[in-house]
């Protein structure tokens, strides 16, 4: 993770230029987009939900919408192309992500618009590492279970799903049962059998 929750919430144009000046390549924890992917709003929303969930099913990360991927020569300020409807779009994306298509919801997800000039915005999406994975997307009558792999998003395999359950599905409880002293702490694995999912 390249930015903390607090840094994302307080991010401004100068902070965004500082981040881009690090010239972090696109990879496992960061994705740069000049605009939302897709030829229509429903397709753009589908891709956004898949990208966001893919980071949550991996180790968290950031999606930065309205910028070009940094290279070795372009001035960081010139990487910011921005979106004219960025402020409104960020609210639409926030409502979308919290409205039910992602199950379970991603705790701590932040979608932050950053004003870069008179009428253009960059949207920074902060996806923290999740303790509730695997997350799936159910949207537009389709079901997806994506995961971030390096620079791409791929459907989770049965192995990925098992690993996600085993690494995130632990809880600590107090026990008073046989042979244990009152208040002793034990850790139990919670086994979850995921429903069948398809990648269309």
What does this entry look like structurally?
With 200 residues, the protein is of the alpha+beta class. The protein has one domain (5-157): Methyltransferase, Cobalt-precorrin-4 Transmethylase, Domain 2 (2-Layer Sandwich), CATH 3.30.950. It has helices at residues 5-9, 13-21, 41-57, 86-98, 158-168, and strands spanning 30-33, 61-65, 102-103, 110-117, 120-127, 136-139, 142-144, 146-149, 152-155, 170-175, 184-189. It has a 4-stranded mixed sheet. It has a 3-stranded antiparallel sheet with strand order 3-6-7, covered by helices on one side. Strand 10 (170-175) and strand 11 (184-189) form a beta hairpin. It is globular. Residues 171-200 have low confidence and may be disordered.
Helix and strand sequence: HHEHEHEEEEEEEHEE
Class based on secondary structure composition and strand pairing: alpha+beta
The overall average pLDDT, rounded, is 85
Classify the oligomer: single chain
Number of helices: 5
β-strand number: 11
Beta percentage is 25-35%
Major sheet summary line: 4 strands, mixed
Q: What is the CATH C level class, in words? A: Alpha Beta
Strand order within the widest sheet?
A: 1-2-5-4
Count of individual domains: 1
Distance between the termini: 30 Å
Report helical residue fraction: 25-40%
Radius of gyration: 19 Å
Principal-axis shape: globular
CATH topology: Methyltransferase, Cobalt-precorrin-4 Transmethylase, Domain 2
Uncertain runs are: 171-200
> What would you say the CATH architecture is?
2-Layer Sandwich
């Amino acid at each position: 993770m390249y930015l903390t929750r607090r840094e994302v919430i307080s991010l401004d144009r100068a902070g965004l230029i500082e981040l881009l000046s690090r010239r972090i390549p696109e990879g496992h924890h960061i994705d740069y987009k000049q605009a939302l992917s897709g030829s229509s709003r429903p397709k753009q929303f589908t891709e956004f939900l898949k990208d966001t969930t893919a980071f949550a099913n991996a180790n968290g990360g950031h999606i930065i919408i309205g910028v070009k991927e940094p290279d070795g020569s372009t001035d960081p300020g010139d990487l910011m192309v921005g979106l004219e409807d960025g402020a409104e779009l960020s609210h639409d994306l926030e409502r979308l992500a919290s409205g039910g298509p992602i199950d379970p919801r991603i705790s701590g997800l932040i979608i932050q618009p950053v004003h870069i000039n008179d009428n253009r915005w960059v949207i920074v999406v902060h996806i923290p590492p999740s303790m509730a994975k695997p997350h799936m997307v159910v949207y537009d009558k389709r079901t997806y279970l994506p995961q971030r792999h390096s620079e791409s998003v791929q459907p989770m395999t049965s192995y990925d799903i098992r690993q996600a359950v085993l690494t995130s599905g632990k809880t600590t409880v107090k026990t008073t049962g046989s042979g244990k002293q009152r208040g002793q702490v034990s850790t139990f694995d919670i086994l979850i059998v995921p429903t069948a999912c398809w990648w269309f």
